[in-house]
Task: structure prediction
Amino acid sequence: MKRRTLLATTAAAATLPAAAFAQAKTKIVWWHAMGGALGEEVNRIAKEFNASQAEVEVDAVFKGTYPETLTGAIAAWRAGQAPHIVQMFEVGTGSMLAAGPAVKQVWQLSQETGIEFDPKAYLGGVRGYYSLPDGRLASLPFNSSTSVMWYNKDAFEKAGLDPEKPPATWNDVIAACRALKAKAATPVPMGSAWPIWIQFEQFAAMHDLVFATKANGFEGLDTELKVNAPAFVKQMQRLLDMSKEGLFKYAGRDNAADAIFPSGEAAIGFNSSAARAAVARDAKFRWGEALLPIDPEVNAKPLNSIIGGASLWTMTAPNRTPAEYKACAQFLKFIGRADNDAVWHQHTGYVPVTLAGYELSKKQGYYEKTPGADLPIMQLTRGEVTANSRGFRLGRMAELRNIFSEELEKALQGQQGAQASLDAVVTRGNRVLREFEKATKG
Amino acid sequence: MERRTIFGGWALPAAFVLPQLLLTIFFFIWPAGQAIYGSLTRQDAFGLKTQFIGLENFEDLLTDPLYVESMGRTVAFCVAVTLISMGVALLLAVFADREIKGRGIYRTLLIWPYAVAPAVAAILWILLLHPQIGMISHGLKALGIAWDYKINGTQAMIVVVLASAWKQVSYNFIFFLAGLQSIPRSVIEAARMDGARGWRRFRTILFPLLAPTTFFLLVVNLVYSAFDTFGTIQAMTQGGPGKSTETLVVKVYRDGVVNLDLGGSSAQSVVLMLGIVMLTVMQFRFLGKRDKT
Result:
């Protein structure tokens, strides 16, 4: 208690001289997790917003990786120092939705400030992820991507493959990898960033498989993992076999394998569609972007893939004024504008989140100029969305992914088989889900 | 004869003690109290709902086979780091204690790594051992060893043990060297007169006389390898692949900071705290006794 008053006094003392100034401009802080080229884009947005009007000034602060930003935001809120707006990755959505008074969801913000946000302005797959079951927007969609397969056209040619015809099924992928290996076109045939997101979560959505019950957690906290079903075992066995045969190289969790494709080490690289900027900048070869491969034996009619990326949440703090919330709403409104959305999309490789932003990009002829850039959008909008392809809303999802990675790594070392690994993921994962359920229901 | 300053009243002595007391309260007692309280609760990440659940967190911990595994792994890791860092340091100290040219330079160079921050040390080792770009790994591959510590748990363990031990060698070296220098020359001279040389002299004279230093370092190294190696491990392997380098401190961080299971993580901290208390008691007991004799 003492510490809190102490902090509060210091904070008050610090803001005192600024108070006079603040009457002129409302200052809001935006925490984000975009480093490098993407970070510059974020700064550009903040700068343009600040230049566009005179009342509000946004200060964009880079807070490290997505998980670090999540942890930082929580710690800051507990200390009464939360940022006004925080960029939160989709994995943290479940935690933020359970955060109650710590956040002001978009619909609340809209009610309080009178600034309107139309959920229908957003692409269906994107909107579903960030809204409540009744359709009200919880957080503002910002950077959404999906995963795609990047491939090295030069290497394909060298291995006697058609560079204009990327493999469409997993059997094609294996055949291509064998050819690439035989000709030693690249040091390794295939690598994958985000192994769990791409090879299992996307795989489940596209093949309409139950990853977790209760519509992957959308319909209740009492959801249970089902990833030890035969189709998942088959997918994991495939990766294990490919690794053994020297066709697939595991290069670490999350984005650890980002460089494996652009550096030319692997001829086929799975990654987020937002890797486009990095691939375009770093690849010293001709490259192509392709749909994720499917397994027709599991499901011949693939559905939509799901999104990754992040959305923007408004956070609360003691002593935060209505003027500050209004400033947040104004800024979010600015981000959702079609022209800003289109620029962000074209600069980064994230998909446009608004329909208007997509239309504008079409009208500007962006997709004729950069063929393949609309491929992620096509993949995201393929088929009818089912309970299995809507996305994921599992609590402590970052931890679930870590568990999945650990068991996959054990299997890759030959310590256990595919079935045993996935059984372990289910047992350990369900324990985490039950803990989250208990802690949230309280 | 004892020299003592007698203060009149209590205000002045209290003022002398106060800064240290405040530091202890703010940086030790208060957080430790928070950890103990936290370990008895279940909280959501934002601290909105806190339930008092008694010892449930501890029950969960001790029945969790992964936690027990992590304990075993930590013990193996600590023993390996301690043996390697103390062994190498002792060897170097014995050599640097001889009458050789430029021994001042050797000594200074050997003390250097102590000033390197754990994360920086980890980066240096990553650059040497990285499966794709590491110099040493190129050499190992040329020898036909499939070197990739990112998917080989045993190799990952070797890597973190080496990096952690390397950092501690300097510290041990300083103490061993000081210990060796404080051994009276006359004892060594006498041993030499009696014909004891080389290994025998080390085993029967130097090593026994170094025992207090060795014991002190043993405790310090165990504590170091159990608690201060977090930075190194986190930077190199994050506890992976699988869980093969996840020691107890790494697990505390993983469960508390990444997974936001604050109750469970606090319970782990409390277990670690008990461990450190035990080590400290042991040190005071044994060293205390020695000093009296």
